[in-house]
Amino acid sequence: MTVAERLIVASNRLPVVLDRTPGEGWKVSRGSGGLVTALEPVLREREGTWIGWPGVSEDELPEVDSVLERESGRIGYRVRGVGLTPREEEDFYLGFSNQVIWPLFHDFQTQCNFDPTFWRAYREVNRRFAKVIARESAPNDFIWVQDYHLMSVAEELSQRPSRRRTGFFLHIPFPPLDLFVKLPWRFTLLRSLLHYDLIGFQTARDRNNFIHCVQTLAPDVTVEGEGRVVEVRIGERVVRVGAFPIAIDFDEFADSAASNAVSERVARLWSEFPGRQIILGVDRLDYSKGIPHKLQGFRLALERYPSLQEKVSLVQLVIPSREDIPEYHAIRTEIERLVGRISGEFTRPGWVPIHYQYGRWDREELIAHYRAARINLVTSLKDGMNLVAKEFSAASLEGDGVLILSEYAGATAQLQQDAILVNPYDVEDVAEAIHTACTMPEEERRARMGRIRDKIRKEDIFWWVDVFLKAARGEDLGEWSSLDAYQPPAPPGFFDAVGTASS
Fold it and tell me: How many H-runs (helices) and E-runs (strands) does the chain carry?
């Protein structure tokens, strides 16, 4: 990509957070989340622009423009805001994005609220994003739109005089056909997505789900190719569709984990858990993360394997999310009830089985927890990728960490050979995986983690951006063996038994 071909990123939120302090004006702080972590180093390198909602109303936007301009100079790339009215924030973000698309795409259709008002707000906000993108970009720029909040942006941009090349990346899973068709606006949304020049998904399974929906719901299009990126033809237009698993800046995480500040915090954590293995869970508060399933599996592990008692501690960090949605209050209540029950059942003098914390932590503190932990327990019920699994592995400088990973996390496609895979719905499977991880021989631990670290070092954030932009230019990407979809293995003799029973 040349300087003339700038990269323009658009997402629901900006990578900075603005707070107004009475008498002091606007305070700017760094945003959090996997998307910010993934894209910041790339935008600095490529002199890019990030367009998103700065968390203020439409009327306040002119006031914060100068603040965003100053912040652009500090962080090394431009940030530009899109204003929303309070009603749009309610109906577009809390409504359509998080009460329709999020639950539906994560297989929780019973949590959906298909209010037509939400859909109208979604379309209007996407139209406004397209207007700002058109103003802040040039015809030869590449527009990279991020995630489910902005699936209609390319269609809105296509109605403007000067066409721009556009790509879209979906950070969450794409559902199978039988779930997607439950969406009342399924045809319109699918057609909107097909206005992009390149559509990227986390895994081959997500890409295949999308292709199946296109072939079934849009029979006038054709799908060609069998590689990692296929072509969808709509008349004279060609849309490329592929799988591009998002990654992390491996070197940055590893270097931060080795810093003096983090090393000192790691030593303090180890002193707080003398002679015990730390099992770490780091999750946003969300029903898709399977936190109650994790707690139930940990409880069964303590019950079934008494030798683990007083030898392991589960440190569960829960990050607040979508606190305005009632269902999330119920999840938090359930988590805290389980923590209390397990602690009451197993706590001994000098040992508490679960250290549960609800809040926010700075980057150094999280990395210190990653490095201090011997085991990372991920029990997502559905995840686009799960960057925590990769961050933990990058920060495991001692090289003896063990990753327990849900079969339903997108990271499983890449890491399935060396992580311990679990079905989070199977509490006995989770308990067995915890025992296996805790008792795994040192040599095996190091071999597994070494291979995981080699993979995520090679397939890092810069690799992710490069392969996406190469696909946008129509280049051949070859075969990526690490993107094979995960298929749970059948028990030994299963098919023989089936054959015998049916004969």
Answer: 20, 17
**Residues linked to residue 99 through DSSP beta bridges, in sequence order:** none
Percent of the chain at pLDDT > 70 equals 93
Tell how strand 165-169 and strand 229-234 pair up.
unpaired
**What mean pLDDT do residues 278-293 have?**
97
How far does CA 407 lie from the centroid of its chain?
15
Is residue 278 pLDDT above 50, yes or no? yes
pLDDT band (50, 70, 90) for residue 326: confident
Query: Is there a single domain that holds both residue 28 and residue 159?
Result: yes
Query: From the centroid of its chain, how far is CA 352?
Result: 31
Nearest to 339 by CA among 317, 324, 355: 355
**Residue 212 predicted with pLDDT over 70:** yes
Do 284 and 419 belong together in one domain?
yes
3-state secondary structure of 18: strand
> What span, in angstroms and rounded, lies between the C-alpha atoms of 148 and 142?
19
Predicted model pTM: 0.92
Residue 414 placed within a domain: yes
β-bridge mates for residue 378, sequence order: 405
Pairing of strands 142-146, 165-169: parallel
* In a shared domain, residues 27 and 164: yes
Q: Are residues 219 and 298 in the same domain?
A: no
**What tens digit of pLDDT does each residue of 149-158 get?**
999 999 999 9
We report the CATH number of the domain holding residue 32 as 3.40.50.2000
- Distance, in Å, from the CA atom of 448 to the CA atom of 497, rounded to the nearest integer, reads 33
| Structure tokens belonging to residue 26 | 């606007």
Among 202, 217, 243, the domain-final residue is 243
* Residues taking part in catalysis: 171, 383
| Amino acid residing at 429 | D
